[in-house]
Each structure stands twice: as structure tokens, then as C-alpha cells.
Amino acid sequence: MYERIMIVVDEGAIARAALDEGLALAQVHAAEVVFFHVLPNFVLPLPDMPAVASLGPESHRKAVQRVARRVLAAAQQRAGVLGVAATSQIGADVDAAECIARAAAEHRCQLIVIGSHGRSAIQRLVFGSVVSGLIARAPVPVLVCKKADKRPVTKGARALAPAKRRRVTSSTRAA
Asked: Which of 69, 122, 132, 171 has the greatest number of C-beta atoms within 10 Å?
């Protein structure tokens, strides 16, 4: 069904969940993967705010490109181990969601896989949400992945089925 899947990657744990899911889908569908990393924007410091770091625009650009190359190389290596054909792309735009949607269309991807923090509506207003913008703009379906739960899973179907109740009858009471 899918011939080309875009997986949005960065260095966070949530992106690793999307990477795992996207690569598993690519294996099942024998699909090619396009790893995509959006460079973060350089934010000008405000004059009334104390300086947190002294990183200029050029230093920022070099630093984020170095991170992007490292993240994409790790994703490529993972794909290679799994036998999944993959390419990597870096994008930059003020609107990350638009950047991802445009790249997915340019690369003729049939699915975009991205991680989500699962923030509430108020948190999305404060921190922004690439995922909600992407869902609105993407030309193809978007698979949103959350960080995997760390709880152990019991093997077998019994873990998913409700516990059976034992019916008490007069013959079982006597026993």
C-alpha cells in the first residue's frame, strides 16, 4: 500500500517512537523511507530579557546542522540494519508543519510519520504544535506516534481479554 513513507526525526525520545513505527511499516510494505529533519529557527534575544546563551545566527546555523546530520545518520544506520531503503532531507522554514507537508508532496510520500508529546490544548497554545498544523496541511495521511509506554506487557491474548469469572454453583461450593 505504501511505497514511500516520510519519517520526521529529531533527537528526542518521541521522535524515536515515530522512527520505530515508521521503519516497521516500511518493512511490512517494502517501502522506501524519507527521513526528514526540520531545522529549528534562530530566535533573536529580547533586550529586556537576560541572556541565556551567547550563540549568534551563524553559530546557531552550524550547531543545528551538525545535530541534523547526526540524527539523520543514526536513522539511516538503523534503516540499513533493518534492510529498509532510505534517503535523508533537511528542511528549514518559519512554519515547520508547512515545511514537512511541502517536502512530503515533493518526495511523493504516501504517509507521514511523526512523534507527538500528547500535550493538552492549553499546552499547545503555549508551546505550539507542529502535529496539529501538519494534520491540517498534509497532502497525505499523518500517523502520530507517542513515546512507548514503559510498563511490561504480559505475553499472550489473556493479557488483552477480560478476566473470566468463575461461576459458583452448588457443586463447586461443596468441593
From this structure: 132
Over pLDDT 90: what percentage of the chain? 49
Instruction: Please indicate whether residue 121 or residue 113 has the higher confidence score (pLDDT).
Output: 113
Distances (CA, A) of 64 to 1, 69, 88, 93, 120: 35, 9, 15, 13, 28
Calculate ∠ Cα 69-95-110, nearest 5°.
70
**Domain interval for residue 88:** 4-151
156 class by beta-carbon count within 10 Å (0-12 exposed, 13-18 middle, 19+ buried): exposed
67 Cβ partners below 8 Å, 6+ apart?
Answer: 11
Please give the pLDDT value at position 94. Answer: 87
Q: What is the CATH number of the domain that holds 138?
A: 3.40.50.620
The answer to the question of residue 173 being in a domain is no
Average pLDDT of the residues in 116-125 = 54
- Residues with Cβ within 8 Å of residue 144, at least 6 apart in sequence: 114, 115, 116, 131, 135
